Amino acid sequence: MNNEINFSTFLFINTNKLIINVKQKNYTKPLYQAELNLDKFNKLNSELILNFLDNHIFKIEKLIKNFIKSIYVILDTENLFSVQISIKKNNYGNKLNFENLNHSLSELKDQCKKTLNDEKIIHMIINNYQLDDRTFKSFPENLNCKFFSLDVTFICLSNKKIIDLEKIFKKYHISVKKIVSAKYVKDYFKIKNINIFEKSEKIIEGCNKNEVRFIEKVSKSKGFFVKFFDFFN
């Protein structure tokens, strides 16, 4: 049984509780879930997370009859912060396409990384597309404009915090597949009868068409812009 295909493992972290959750593909009910409630005397730290994982990782691996190879971390802490950046470009009356949009997003991403040298981008979300005097919430296809601008939100986390998390899971030979902002997930979904793990899974799978997904490796048959806009297909 291939763990990567059949199961997704999540760890939810905030200052009040830790929750580990294992979801089987195409099932809403968790295959395994356990939580640790924290009180004001129980300050969240690496040792506390390690002790919690010690109590559950091997139980999960026994249950699924396989090793956990990767995990999604859902963070609900003040360590995550948002930055808003905008960019305006001359489009010379042409149709806005994915290629020039991709170049602008790449420029914004580089600008954010230069400004926040010790931070890593966790989410990159397009808030608005403005074509001349028209504003759109989703990508406006096949429209001409003299100028276009983008308003983008970056959700970031310090490299040190990421390294600390990676060290925790290294003990179990588990890689951190993605870090997800719990606040972003909660703000995006207004439906309350879906739990944070289902919501996060949908975000990871690309349900928000305005979230830019970075794809580091692409096949030679794909164009350059697909590195950013694979989710439009």
Supply database-style keywords:
single chain, 233 residues, alpha+beta, Nucleotidyltransferase, domain 5, 4-stranded antiparallel sheet, 9 strands, 32% strand, elongated
Explain how this protein is built:
The chain has 2 domains: 122 residues, 2-Layer Sandwich (Nucleotidyltransferase, domain 5), CATH 3.30.420; 77 residues, Dna Ligase, domain 1. About 3% of the residues have low confidence. The protein has 233 residues and is an alpha+beta fold. The protein is 30% helix and 32% strand. The protein has a 5-stranded mixed sheet, sandwiched between helices. Strands 5-8-6-7 form a 4-stranded antiparallel sheet. Strand 2 and strand 3 form a beta hairpin. 23% of the residues are buried.
Topology:
Blueprint: H1 3-6, E1 7-14, E2 17-24, E3 32-37, H2 46-54, H3 57-64, E4 70-76, E5 81-90, H4 98-115, E6 119-131, E7 134-136, E8 147-158, H5 159-170, E9 175-181, H6 182-188, H7 196-204, H8 226-229
Parallel strand pairs: 1-4, 4-9
Antiparallel strand pairs: 1-2, 2-3, 5-8, 6-7, 6-8
Report the biggest beta sheet as strand number plus sense, adding barrel if it closes: 5 strands, mixed
Beta percentage is: 25-35%
The separation of the N and C termini measures: 29 Å
Overall mean pLDDT: 87
Q: What percentage of residues falls in helices of 4 or more residues?
A: 25-40%
The 3D shape can be described as elongated
Looking at how many chains there are and whether they match, the oligomeric state comes to single chain
The CATH C-level name of the largest domain is Alpha Beta
**Helix- and strand-based class?**
alpha+beta
Q: What's the arrangement of strands in the largest beta sheet?
A: 3-2-1-4-9
Might you state the CATH topology name of the largest domain? Nucleotidyltransferase, domain 5
Instruction: Label the CATH architecture of the largest domain.
Output: 2-Layer Sandwich
Radius of gyration: 20 Å
CATH-level-4 superfamily name of the largest domain: ATPase, nucleotide binding domain
**What is the tally of helical segments?**
8
What is the helix/strand order? Answer: HEEEHHEEHEEEHEHHH
Number of strands: 9
Number of domains: 2
Instruction: Detail the poorly predicted runs.
Output: 221-227
